[in-house]
């Protein structure tokens, strides 16, 4: 059974010229303009600025200072705080800072 409107992709060899380029037809919407002139990755602002240094500081805090705080936690105090809260807070701060530092307005 063949349908004239199958709703999916159908390869049409007559839609391409001898060089393999797609020929424009009356039904094309022209949504592929970004393919003709894409933005080069070096044109984007990707500098290691103050956001990067804040992220480095939070990484040092999460991977050096927080484990030291867990190690030096006085044994007379509650271990729930030492073994659950102290690792959880730096991980949460690191996650939020990483998302903030890598997104650009």
Explain this structure to me?
The chain is mainly alpha-helical and 105 residues long. It has a domain at 67-105. The protein has three helices and no strands. The chain has helices at 33-36, 50-71, 79-102. α2 (50-71) packs antiparallel against α3 (79-102). The radius of gyration is 28 Å and the shape is elongated. The model has no long low-confidence stretch (mean pLDDT 77).
Strand and helix map with partners:
Layout: H1 33-36, H2 50-71, H3 79-102
Helix pairs in contact: 2-3
Pfam families: DUF7977
Region (Disordered): 1-41
InterPro entries: DUF7977
Task: Considering the chains and any ligands shown, give keywords for the structure.
elongated, 105 residues, mainly alpha
Low-pLDDT segments: none
Q: Give the CA-CA distance, first to last residue.
A: 52 Å
**Helix content range:** 40-55%
The overall pLDDT average reads 77
Q: Give me the strand/helix succession.
A: HHH
Keywords: Membrane, Transmembrane, Transmembrane helix
Pfam family, one: DUF7977
InterPro entries: DUF7977 (IPR058283)
Transmembrane segments: 53-73, 79-101
Summarize the entry for a quick read.
The chain has 105 residues and is an all-alpha fold.
């Amino acid at each position: 059974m063949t349908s004239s409107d199958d709703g999916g992709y159908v390869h049409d060899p007559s839609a391409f010229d001898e060089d393999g380029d797609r020929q424009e037809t009356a039904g094309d919407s022209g949504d592929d303009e970004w393919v003709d002139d894409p933005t080069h990755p070096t044109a984007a602002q990707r500098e290691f600025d103050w956001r990067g240094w804040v992220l480095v500081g939070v990484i040092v805090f999460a991977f050096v200072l927080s484990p030291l705080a867990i190690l030096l936690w006085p044994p007379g105090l509650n271990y729930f705080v030492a073994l659950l809260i102290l690792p959880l807070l730096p991980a949460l701060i690191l996650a939020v800072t990483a998302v903030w530092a890598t997104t650009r307005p």
